[in-house]
Amino acid sequence: MDQQLFKDLSEIHARLVDHRPILQGHISFFVKEFEDKRGDHDRERLKKLNEEIREMKDGLLPEAMQGMDCFLANLTAKLKVATEVCKRVEEKENSVDTEILEIERERRRKDWTEFLARQHETCDQVDAEFSEQAEIVAKHYEDLEKNLTAMKNSTP
Questions:
Q1: Which residue in 28, 54, 57, 59 is a FRET match for 48, CA 20 to 30 A apart?
Q2: pLDDT digit string (tens) for 2-55?
Q3: Cα–Cα distance list, 152 to 139, 141, 142, 149, 156 (Å)
Q4: Integer Cα distance of 34 and 21 in angstroms
């Protein structure tokens, strides 16, 4: 009887507290549903991705490396040529007699100052001529006005 009681209690305990069988059933149902709905999409995606990676590794990567080697070698050669040209220009600039350049610069500065002085003189002359002409025109109109008033006064 003790054994029977123990069995009954164990069975009641298992039904009330131990949910492993039920959970295992639910878990296996969930996994089955998940796999059925998803199908083999993930596996096929991974296969495609793996194929693309192999294709890149075997085909595109060597082509890109080969192109870069050719391009970079060409670029390096052009850079060396450009560097040499820059060095030659720098050497020529350093070898030019700077004394002659300074003399020429000073001569151009003097020429410029003389040019500006002549421009100022010409501007002053033009201003003076304008003032003279303005005075002549003003005097002419004053004379005309005097003659006009004289004519008005002499007319009966």
A1: 28
A2: 788 778 778 877 777 767 777 787 888 877 777 766 666 777 888 888 898 888
A3: 20, 16, 15, 5, 8
A4: 20
Amino acid at 8: D
- Which has the closest alpha carbon to 1: 83, 73, 9? 9
pTM of the predicted protein model: 0.34
Closest CA to 106 of 94, 98, 118, 95: 98
Q: What Cα–Cα distance (Å) separates residue 90 from each residue in 83, 93, 140?
A: 11, 5, 70
**Which value, in Å, is the radius of gyration of the alpha carbons in the chain?**
54
Q: By C-alpha distance, which of 80, 79, 60 is closest to 68?
A: 60
Q: How far apart are CA 14 and CA 21, in angstroms?
A: 10
Tokens of 136: 């002549």
